[in-house]
């Protein structure tokens, strides 16, 4: 039975849809996508004829597939699985054994989808990007690309600007841009949308959101996890391409963009694009001075000993792949000229956090006894582990003397807003079905992000230096502390 919290937000039913999940037995499908769909089913959003077709190469029966999905949903849904509701949900689940590269196999899919040609058709490609082109071509050849069809592309979208462009061209030859949904799951996080609400729903912050008022900004996505069985993929990718090119730059865009004229998808994406295009290029020697790359060695996370990166499965013994990156970036616009944006991400860090920290200027002249004001005049927008906003201000310390000290004004969304939150993939999957592109990356955004990232990798490739070593369970290499320290700042949370 739905709790009173759930009843307070009746979800609107989705239009009739068929969702075809390429990579249907893969990790993302099992861990995130199918559990997310089940939750939307529980919320009453599924129309009567909704169907989900998992597609993969293994020749298993539908029942085996359902058993796999049930087992993983049990594992990954925090509230567990209600058997009756699961059975009802599973009626909308189907499986097709299909070799993505074999055009004739797509007839099986066509036969399954034939009875509802007018439904929204979502083709979610959770496969290696090398398959995107052939899948799209085969879908088109089988007559499956209708006007109501959408293709969803999971990252990584390329290895660099040229390969991303190639993918975009090939997919774009079959699907028009308005039918292409490039996922960055960070944009689906409630806290990111809340940042849009904070900035553009209130007049309070806008006058402060600029140079002269903001001294510097930090964006951190730190993970306790290591490469978690994805060694072979990760070693070819590294933190810059796995996290910075997409998640961190998208957070930067939401933080720094100008107010869009409306919430129309292109109005929002136009403004994000301007931020990416205004990022000051880091070339050659600038990379050494403004970018730190690191790689973890053995250490302990939460008191549990963990192996170093080079000892993980699937990693080349002499790998120079970075598991940590810190960057000092600048946005060359009237609003942000001269304000440093420090970006930092890493695996096997001390804590699991994702946050944007905005440090405002101190008062120009203090009439009070000197206090350590470090940490005050600061806004922390936390995405993980909790969705919260904390404004730290200076207030009077109780007592006889007029001494100030930092105090927190804290909004914890889970406590304050008694409505269950949507997981990022729940939000993004329903947006695809509804046809809302706002939280998906447009082709030109992706291109601009790669254009800024590529020279960083090129500089590393030309250098003989190895990534700086850091102990697993720390905050990264000492050089990352110096990067911000030489400007007189410290990373939030790092003591
Ligand atoms: C993915 C990366 O895009 O994001 C992973 O490929 C990373 O390496 C993950 O662990 C982090 O996402 P979240 O939502 O757990 O912070």
Q: Residue-averaged pLDDT, rounded?
A: 93
Strands, total number: 17
> Can you identify the CATH class of the largest domain?
Alpha Beta
- Examine the secondary-structure arrangement and name the CATH architecture of the largest domain: 2-Layer Sandwich
Oligomer: single chain
The share of residues in extended strands comes to 15-25%
Q: Over the alpha carbons, how many angstroms does the gyration radius reach?
A: 24 Å
Structure write-up:
This protein is α/β, with parallel strands linked by helices. It folds into two domains: 17-154, Rossmann fold, CATH 3.40.50; 187-425 and 443-485, 2-Layer Sandwich (Dihydrodipicolinate Reductase, domain 2), CATH 3.30.360.10. Helix content is 35%, strand content 21%. It has 15 helices and 17 strands. The strands form three sheets. The chain has a nine-stranded mixed beta sheet, sandwiched between helices. The chain has a six-stranded parallel beta sheet with strand order 3-2-1-4-5-6. Strands 9-10 form a two-stranded antiparallel ribbon. Strand 15 (388-396) and strand 16 (404-412) form a beta hairpin. The radius of gyration is 24 Å and the shape is globular. Residues 1-8 have low confidence and may be disordered. The site of 6-O-phosphono-beta-D-glucopyranose (BG6) has 6 residues, from loops.
């Amino acid at each position: 039975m739905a709790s009173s919290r759930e009843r307070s937000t009746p979800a609107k039913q989705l239009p009739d849809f068929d969702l075809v999940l390429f990579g249907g037995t893969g990790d993302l499908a099992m861990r995130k996508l199918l559990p997310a769909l089940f939750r939307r089913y529980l919320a009453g959003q599924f129309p009567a004829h909704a169907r989900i077709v998992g597609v993969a190469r293994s020749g298993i029966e539908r029942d085996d597939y359902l058993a796999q999905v049930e087992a993983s949903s049990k594992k990954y849904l925090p509230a567990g699985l209600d058997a009756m509701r699961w059975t009802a949900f599973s009626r909308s689940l189907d499986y097709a054994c299909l070799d993505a590269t074999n055009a004739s196999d797509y007839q099986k899919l066509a036969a399954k989808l034939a009875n509802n040609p007018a439904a929204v058709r979502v083709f979610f490609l959770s496969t290696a990007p090398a398959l995107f082109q052939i899948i799209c071509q085969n879908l088109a050849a089988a007559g499956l690309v209708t006007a109501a069809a959408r293709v969803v592309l999971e990252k990584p979208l390329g290895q660099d600007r040229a390969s991303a462009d190639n993918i975009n061209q090939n997919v774009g030859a079959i699907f028009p841009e308005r039918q292409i949904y490039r996922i960055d799951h960070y944009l689906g996080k409630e806290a990111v949308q809340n940042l849009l609400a904070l900035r553009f729903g209130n007049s309070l912050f806008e006058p402060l959101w600029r140079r002269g008022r903001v001294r510097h900004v930090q964006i951190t996505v730190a993970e306790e996890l290591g490469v978690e069985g994805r060694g072979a993929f990760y070693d070819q990718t590294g933190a810059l391409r796995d996290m910075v090119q997409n998640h961190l730059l998208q957070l930067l865009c939401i933080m720094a963009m100008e107010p869009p004229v409306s919430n129309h998808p292109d109005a929002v994406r136009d403004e994000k694009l301007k931020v990416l295009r205004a990022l000051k290029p880091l070339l050659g020697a600038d990379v050494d001075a403004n970018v730190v790359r690191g790689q973890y060695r053995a250490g302990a996370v939460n008191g549990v000993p963990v192996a170093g990166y080079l000892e993980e499965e699937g990693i080349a013994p002499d790998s120079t792949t970075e598991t940590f990156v810190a960057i000092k970036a600048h946005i060359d616009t009237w609003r942000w000229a001269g304000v440093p944006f420090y970006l930092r991400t890493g695996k096997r860090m001390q804590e699991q956090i994702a946050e944007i920290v905005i440090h405002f200027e101190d008062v120009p002249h203090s009439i009070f006894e000197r206090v350590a004001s470090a940490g005050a005049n600061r806004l922390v927008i936390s995405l993980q582990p909790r969705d919260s906003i904390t404004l730290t201000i200076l207030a009077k310390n109780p007592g006889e003397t007029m001494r100030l000290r930092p105090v927190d004004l804290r909004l914890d969304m889970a406590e304050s807003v008694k409505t269950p939150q949507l997981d990022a993939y729940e939000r993004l999957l329903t947006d695809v079905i509804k046809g809302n592109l706002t939280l998906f990356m447009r082709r030109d955004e992706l291109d601009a992000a790669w254009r800024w990232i590529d020279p960083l990798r090129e500089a590393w490739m030309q250098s003989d230096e190895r990534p700086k070593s850091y102990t697993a369970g720390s905050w990264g290499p000492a050089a990352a502390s110096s990067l911000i320290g030489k400007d007189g700042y410290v990373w939030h949370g790092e003591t």
